[in-house]
Amino acid sequence: MPQINNxxxxxxxxxxxxxxxxxxxxxxxINIRFRNNAVETxxxxxxxATLPIAANFGIHWRRPDQGYNVFAKDGYFVRVDAxxxxxxxxxxxxxxxxxxxxxxTPFNGGYAIVFNNGKSTPLYCLYGxxxxxxxxxxxxxxxxxxxxxxxAKVVRSLNYALVAANLTITQNSIVTNAPxxxxxxxxxxxxxxxxxxxxxxxxxxxDEFELxxxxxxxxxxxxxxxxxxxxxxxxxxxxxxxxxxxxPYSKTYGIxxxxxxxxxxxxxxxxxxxxxxxxxxxGKIESIAEGKVKNYFFDNLNKSNLNIVHVVHDKYxxxxxxNYPKGVSTYCNEALIYNYSTNTWTxxxxxxITYSFxxxxxxxxxxxxxxxxxxxxTNTFYTLKTDDxxxxxxxxxxxxxxxxxxxxxxxxxxxxxxxLISSLYPxxxxxxxxxxxxxxxxxxxxxxxxxxxxDDDKFxxxxxxxxxxxxxxxxxxxxxxxxxxxxxxxxxxxAMYDIDVKPADRR
Length: 507
Known about the structure:
By secondary structure, this protein is mainly β. It is 1% helix and 50% strand.
């Protein structure tokens, strides 16, 4: 076989039949990253802030004066500065905050931040305000008619206005569900918060619309100056100008849940209830999971816990993580990761993650905005943050990352079974500190057999050995197709590999 390189452009593919995959595309692997035209161990995490609450939501708020990581659990909000100092923003046992599923939006260039849980008046903090600078307050004039109470599934910012959607309206004890209704506030002055929500009072943007949608609005996100409104099975586009306009965008695509959309490079990345897709706001929608990871994701997703599925954008590595509960887990225990610079997929282990959000790392007592990281909340008082280390949280401690990458049913060029797999040559330009790499290799004749590796299939690769074991392993196995898996712990980078096949002896 020819030398197999360009390993950074293949990625993982779980859906296409293994035998049809090109040699630089892998059918199994975890805790790896496809980058710089190679396969390498994915970076890990370290402990972040220790909180007085077991947070299940967080966001970074970059205020004009300084930054804070804000963490929430029901009626408790804690902010953490770069030095690790914590301060309470809300401490309430009110039942309207119980079992909250919070979402948030920065507003007005970072002057304000708004939090919403879908069952109480949205809360905000505003830099420079005597009352709301450090403690959360209800949005002013949200319930603009006496005796009326309004809740919104989601609130997002668009320019200098706030947009609320999927409303529940209670007036005179009569409850009206309006899952396809949108409210737009007036525009706020620089450094302020909107003061009017009632339509028709001013010539400003305060308005209310009803979408022609058969499913509820689940989230909204800005793109190219417009707000894209994501229902379960459709998309609409809201534009605010001299005249506020709402028009349909797609009747076939939608969104799985709140926090399942993010922007990258002038595009939206969206997890749908049937697909994972991108679009640039011009009408073209492209599946990026079909034939690669779509079946894998939806087959493994715990559909009883869709509310915790969310996406997070790691701008430094040009990756978008879909954090989701796999199998029967009630926490996010795996990230399905899309690299939009290489158009590749990979997977990473997570342990008891309740939420994640992008933000800056710290440099002494200041946030360092030159490089983004991902913060992760757990089911404990501990938070985690990604770092250029190779340790992962196991629920108690940080331990070395275990990783593997391999191929099942690799077509070695002769499906008649006349070849012998003589040697495999993995080319590592970086190896783990202990140089301990195990390679499992097994031949296979019956394509439908489920291959499992045993110790008899294990070969120890010794990159520090000056003899043959330092540059190859010799399985000498027959098979119409070949299976191999390379595994270790700690950092390593596989630049290429080669396979030596020879005619098998015949009588």
